[in-house]
Amino acid sequence: MADGRETRERRVNHRRTAKTSVRTGLCAALLLVATDGIATAQTAEDTLLAYAVNIHQTPMQTWGPGYGIYLGKGYFLTAAHVAGRTWVTRPKVAISGEEFPTRVVKEGQLEATDLTLLAVNEALLPMRLRLRRMRLCDALPRPGEEVVTVVPEAVVRSRIIAPERIPVGARRFNTAIADVAKTGNSGSGVFDVKQRCLLGIMSRKISQKRTNPITRKEETQDIAKYFVPASEIAAFLPPGTIDQR
């Protein structure tokens, strides 16, 4: 009888263990799916961090390091005023604190096309960069469209601002984003996360002076940040610089 009771108890315990295992396995599977979903959402933005670099003048500019974006094939794009007059500043690309000497491929001007294209010997670059390629966005930025700005330290969400919200005197800078204080500064990249393409390179703040109705003092208010759009970048880059696919 004792052996019979033990056998029945073992069967019951086995069934309980099996049910518990099934439940545990199901929870683990559900957790894996949920976690994987989160990881994928984060990765879409986080992978863009690899394209963000610092730009150092020689000696280092007094306002601190500037920013740039890796395009692929050893090419880096930044704002012209960040690189400065390259024959004087001899700009370097800095990746994770390590500086790389550059060759100036094409230099623009702040008041014309605010872009400068630099090149680094691709063999010197970290392996994590060598196989990467960034493409330019084909579609024009749309007001209200969600975008991100990317610098080596952070990815920050923002939105395209409507041209009519830009002061009349600055309407020629009609590709702009909001969130002036939080987003990347000159030379940083503006990206369409869904399409994983470069919308533009940050160029300047757009501000206007207003009289404070309480203090009656004139104050400067930041309105937006202008970026050089992908269409101008495409026209600026020499043929073969970037693969559009």
Could you explain how this protein is built, in words?
With 245 residues, the protein is α+β, with helices and mostly antiparallel strands. It folds into three domains: 2-47; 49-130, Trypsin-like serine proteases (Thrombin, subunit H, Beta Barrel), CATH 2.40.10.10; 146-236. Helix content is 26%, strand content 32%. Strands 5-4-1-2-3-7-6 form a seven-stranded antiparallel β-sheet. A six-stranded antiparallel β-sheet has the order 9-8-11-12-13-10. The longest helix is centred in the N-terminal third of the chain and has 45 residues, at 2-46. The radius of gyration is 26 Å and the shape is globular. The relative contact order is 0.15.
Concise structural overview:
The protein has 245 residues and is of the alpha+beta class. It contains 5 helices and 13 strands.
Mean pLDDT: 81
Biggest β-sheet description: 7 strands, antiparallel
**Number of E strands:** 13
Number of helices: 5
What value does the Rg take, in angstroms?
Answer: 26 Å
**Coarse shape:** globular
Roughly how much helix do the residues carry, as a percent range? 25-40%
Distance between the termini: 77 Å
Major β-sheet strand ordering: 5-4-1-2-3-7-6
Structural class label = alpha+beta
Q: Spans with pLDDT under 50 lasting ≥5 residues?
A: 14-41
Structure keywords:
single chain; 245 residues; alpha+beta; Thrombin, subunit H; 3 domains; seven-stranded antiparallel β-sheet; six-stranded antiparallel β-sheet; 5 helices; 13 strands; 32% strand; globular
